[in-house]
Amino acid sequence: MTYEEIKKNMPEEYESRKKDKLRYRYPRGESYLDVIQRLEPVIIELERQRAPVVVISHQAVLRALYAYFADRPLNEIPLIEVPFHTIIEIQMGVTGVQEKRYKLMG
């Protein structure tokens, strides 16, 4: 369902998610907090890598990973802009995270 369809057909779910996007869990789905917990072993493995890694995933997963590596607060995770068709290159440095974004489609 699109967000407009959810708003029309399930207004209580739409409002619940709007009030607390971080903790909201769709029926039979995951909340951002669930995603973060599920990603813990992935993060450990990513931290062990010495060569560049490409992660292709859903926005919620990408937001959670980005927030972890960019040291962003938990409450900001659902609000992080992760545009479609874009490569976000992050590099860890002594001054923090260096970021470059590459738009793939016009």
From TrEMBL:
Top-level taxon of the source organism: Eukaryota
Protein name, UniProt field: 6-phosphofructo-2-kinase
CC terms in the record's Gene Ontology section: cytosol
SUPFAM superfamilies (UniProt xref): Phosphoglycerate mutase-like
Gene Ontology BP, a term: fructose 2,6-bisphosphate metabolic process
Pfam families named among the record's database cross-references: His_Phos_1 (PF00300)
Origin organism lineage: Eukaryota, Viridiplantae, Streptophyta, Embryophyta, Tracheophyta
Organism: Zingiber officinale (Ginger)
Record GO terms (molecular function): 6-phosphofructo-2-kinase activity; ATP binding; fructose-2,6-bisphosphate 2-phosphatase activity
Cross-referenced PANTHER family: 6-PHOSPHOFRUCTO 2-KINASE_FRUCTOSE 2,6-BISPHOSPHATASE LONG FORM, 6-PHOSPHOFRUCTO-2-KINASE/FRUCTOSE-2,6-BISPHOSPHATASE
